[in-house]
Amino acid sequence: MPGIGAVGARCRHRPRRRLPKAEAGALHAGEESAMEAAIWIYQFRLIVLGDSTVGKSCLLHRFTEGRFPGPRNSDPTVGVDFFSRLVEIEPGKRIKLQLWDTAGQERFRSITRSYYRNSVGGLLVFDITNRSSFDHMSDWLDEAKMHADPFQLVFVLVGHKCDLETQRQVPREEAEELASACGMKYIETSAKDATNVEESFTVLTTDIYELVKKGEITMQDGWEGVKSGFIPNVVHSSEEAASLGDQCTC
Ligand SMILES: Nc1nc2c(ncn2[C@@H]2O[C@H](COP(=O)(O)OP(=O)(O)O)[C@@H](O)[C@H]2O)c(=O)[nH]1
Ligand SMILES: [Mg+2]
Fold first, then answer.
1. What is this entry's stated membrane topology (predicted)?
2. Which ligand 1 atom lies nearest to the CA of residue 190?
3. Which residue in 23, 83, 159, 200 is a FRET match for 121, CA 20 to 30 A apart?
4. Cβ(191) to ligand 1 under 6 A?
């Protein structure tokens, strides 16, 4: 995507963590390194929703670590998985993504209200080879909207496992219609061959960033969805200041 680039697939990745729900809200506090805090303008907290086995965890691993996990890593142990990565949406403007994976809770639809409420948006993922996972997309969307209220969530609809074209059960056009009816973009991805994985997250990040810039999404105390980063002051050396002064035309 023009103007959008990831900042090193691995460099900002914090080690994957599996935490009990109670600890989840405290994850961000006090954990930023000074280096990390100085290089992003906003932090967006995003969630990944969809039926079990559609490939949510693999998508997150691919995006944050640049690899497709083997069977051991895709074991859906119940808990909360936390991922992190920076994306550069404009030259020099980086956004830190805090990415939350349901890690098995989706199996029992036991996702907590705060999981939705403290997010600004996410990916709604179905498996293009699994018709029922697509049929459940509206349920996931309704559930997310209900729990997030009064906050708005920004979603992108993701048809995953597009490397399995021969086993496709959901026509692209049908998915595009649903996305359009719900005011979302649609994108097809594969964590296996890395198709559109970057794009799915950067499209979502850009959509949210535009809404933040327009003031349609605002930061609020006690809400984790969007946080402001630290923008360092530019301190010029005396030589630089002098040369800047030379350029002044007034
Ligand atoms: N062919 C293919 N298989 C995938 C892809 N992504 C995930 N899988 C497989 O789908 C299964 C479920 O993946 P997982 O990420 O655990 O799904 P989750 O339950 O939604 O988190 C695993 O066997 C993965 O290897 C993909 O892009 N292509
Ligand atoms: Mg999973």
1. Lipid-anchor
2. 27
3. 23
4. yes
